[in-house]
Amino acid sequence: MKTTEGLPFVKFMMLLSSMAPLFLLVGIRGMDNIVSDKNLWITIGTLLFIPFVIVKLRIYFSVKSNDVFVLDVSETKNNKEYLFTYLFTVLLPLYSVTIGSNREFFAIIFAICFVIFVLWNMNLHFVNILFALQGYRVYTIESFDSAILLTTRATLPKDINELKVHRLSNSVYIELKKHKYGN
What we know:
The protein is α+β, with helices and mostly antiparallel strands. It has one domain. It has six helices and six strands. A six-stranded mixed sheet has the order 1-5-6-4-3-2. A hairpin with a 4-residue loop joins strand 3 and strand 4. Helix 1 crosses helix 3, helix 2 packs antiparallel against helix 3 and helix 2 packs parallel to helix 4. The two termini are 22 Å apart.
């Protein structure tokens, strides 16, 4: 199955949603002399709220339209290392950055854009702390021409071959425990 990304806006919202800890870190550190705290926190709140709501709406519409697929999950890999990659490549380098001048502000914006570009192209747009806090794990399902990401609260047993899931995008699927998939 060729997994060209059919929902790029949703993919971008998933990516922005996964950047929530970075946005919070920037807010906590502040941007003295660049942006007032009030405007900074309004912007950060917007960057946290809107992408998360859009991802939740995509889940809602996927359920409502019965956008269900059967995935072959016999060859899956748990992506715990993605979280470490995320932490060490995104959060830690930017933790020590002080944003006190316009030049530093544009440097951090460039760094964030570069991180978004890398995560987009490496298909790591669903390393989402908000979903991880809800108990979701991310698995990679290798396909002959690409990789598919599956997020689920379940631990996938080795003896299961197929799983019914909802499509968030052409490369990201979610298993919802509260949903009755039937046979």
